[in-house]
Amino acid sequence: MLEQLMSDVIDSSSSTSTIESSRSSKSILQLITCPICLEIFREPLQLPCQHTFCKLCLERITEDRWGRCPVCRGCYRVPFAGVGSFEVNRTIVNLLESLSHTEPKPMLKAKCALCKLEDTITVCEHCREAICCKCRRQHYDEFSRYISSKLNETQQETEKLIAKEVENIKNHEENVCRSDDIANVIRNKVADLIEKIKQEETKLLHNVQEFSKAEQKLIDEKNACLQDLSIINKFCLESQGILHSKEETDQEAIEIRQKCEEYVLSVNDLQSRILIVKTPIRRISFFNRDISSDSISLGFVEIGMVLEPIESTVQLSSIFLSSLKIEPSSTTSSTDADLQHCSKQLIRCLSATLQQQSDYPNGSSPSYRSNISTSDNNGCCRQQLQSQNHKRTPRIIGKRGTRDTEFMHPSSLAYSKRDQLIYVCDTYNNRLVTYSIDGIFQQVYTAISETGEIRFHHPYAIHIDSDNRLYLIDQSERRIKVFNRDFKLIRVIGQYGRDVGQYSAPCDLCTNEQNYIFVCDAGGHRILKYSEQGQFLLAWGGLGTDNGQFKCPACVCILNGDRLAVSDWGNDRVQVFNCEGDHLLSIGQRGKLLAEFFRPLGLAYDETTERLFVCDEGNNRVTIFNSDFTTTELVHSKIGFHGPYDILLLKDGRIIISEHRAHRLQII
């Protein structure tokens, strides 16, 4: 009886402990489960409202700089560095680490991702899938095969890269040896030049020393004559006094007479040597022959650059063959679709570029400006290339820093015709900087005025209209502000949002002669049109790759004929519209050839020559298109470009380019 009672007590205590453990497991599971994905936390981040979510879940639900908590619906602002900048919930992290050592991982009741049966499952640590115990082996086999295939592909690619890098290292070693040889040649030439200069120095110094010795000899002779004359002059003075004091001739007077006769002869001799004989007066001079820097130049060191040919040219070649009316061996439907959107002018330009590339089979890109003219004769397409070397030495303004003449990622440029000032958006220094047209620093406009008024916060784009009003896009506040020239706020254009007439991420704007305002909304992938007073009029675009659609439009500028050009940054092209939003033309595609782009940004239009300038930021160059978009050329700089962002054309033909990666301006 006692044994039965003891067993009942033990059974009851064990059941009680089991219930308590299950309750504690459920409570712990609630604490470590993400409210969004309903799985165990992975990289738990804590919002300002103290609610915690997985990092991937937050990135998935966050579209812009502002968001709402899924639990309490409170607003939160995403830091500039992204979602990952939120504070890590250390309590949850420590709890997960302690559970991994003390208890088995909590078991979730859900359906298996493989067999679709409801069973006790665990979460796979690799893919975060819910897998039951029966399917774990099968899931691991699939995972192992997938990883093995990826490892095999990676190994093959690595072997190719290793071979390529070995070849590159060999080429660099050869360049090092050649540079050593060139350095020795330069040293020998400099040594010879120094030896010749020393010989010339010895000859000139010898001539000067000979003249100096001759003059010193004459000085000694003249000093001797001067001494004799001084003695005679003294004798005459003393003798005259003696003779006046005597009353009759004596021996002393006779001696005076004898010496006087001798001195008379000496004076006559000296007089003939000093006055009668004309002694020439010599002068020494040195005619300096200035040696210019060009005359002593030993030569120059040229560093050539050979670009490797692009491997993926299938689609481009098919476009070229279609433009030349030659049937390719294999064509795809995507190529035919692309051909429907290409204008005849673009095809001719690309064909000329292909001809140019065939003239340089090693893939090198010559430093010239090319003029391409196309003419059809009996169904044949002929290209005529003319080259002209026009490299110019640029003037560099600024470097990375926070001083008045330094920048931190300069972006947009604008020119005031009335004030003749150049405005630069120094974005990360949170200011505007002005320069004269000669590149001389003028003034800095800070974010806070002298009266304490907040003007802007991280200016991103700037524009000055015909009435000298200043339009500024505020990156942090996402607002478009209009100022007068006293920097007093006139009005705010539009408002932040995703509804009709609102913008989510404005990045550039421009105005036409009627003072209509056109805004690039990169977040909404569209162009917005406003009146001069800020009233919304029209919007067009949308996310996509078709003509008239955009993927993060970056910059906009007005062309003649009531047209405007838009740099379609994500689609690597430039699109041309009329002011009512009708698509007229698309220029370029992704690539490195002359008429291709990689992330185009700033635009500028020359009204005199009707040429369009495009900052090809990804390819680190500036491309020029003619009025019919068939003739292309490049803006050359002897130091090259590093992240060209915006371009400004001056009346005297000079070009100003802002480079946000190099933190500087170039005036060419």
Task: Explain what this protein looks like in three dimensions.
This protein has 668 residues and is an alpha+beta fold. It folds into three domains: 24-99, Herpes Virus-1, CATH 3.30.40.10; 135-256; 395-667, 6 Propeller (Neuraminidase), CATH 2.120.10.30. The protein has eight helices and 34 strands. It has a four-stranded antiparallel sheet, with no helix packed on it. The model is unreliable at 12-19, 101-108 and 307-390 (pLDDT under 50).
Report the helical percentage: 25-40%
Number of domains: 3
Number of helices: 8
- Cα(first) to Cα(last) distance is 106 Å
Class derived from helix and strand content: alpha+beta
Main β sheet profile:
4 strands, antiparallel
CATH architecture of the largest domain: 6 Propeller
Order of strands, main sheet, comes to 11-34-33-32
Record field, number of beta strands = 34
Reported by name, the CATH topology of the largest domain is: Neuraminidase
DSSP strand (E) fraction?
25-35%
The CATH class designation of the largest domain is Mainly Beta
**CATH level-4 homologous superfamily of the largest domain:** TolB, C-terminal domain
Question: What general form does the structure show?
Answer: elongated
> Which spans of ≥5 residues are poorly predicted at pLDDT below 50?
12-19, 101-108, 307-390
From the alpha carbons, calculate the radius of gyration and give it in angstroms: 44 Å
InterPro entries: 6-blade_b-propeller_TolB-like, NHL_repeat, TRIM-NHL_E3_ligases, Znf_C3HC4_RING-type, Znf_RING, Znf_RING/FYVE/PHD, Znf_RING_CS
Coiled coil: 155-203
Pfam family, one: NHL
Organism: Rotaria sordida
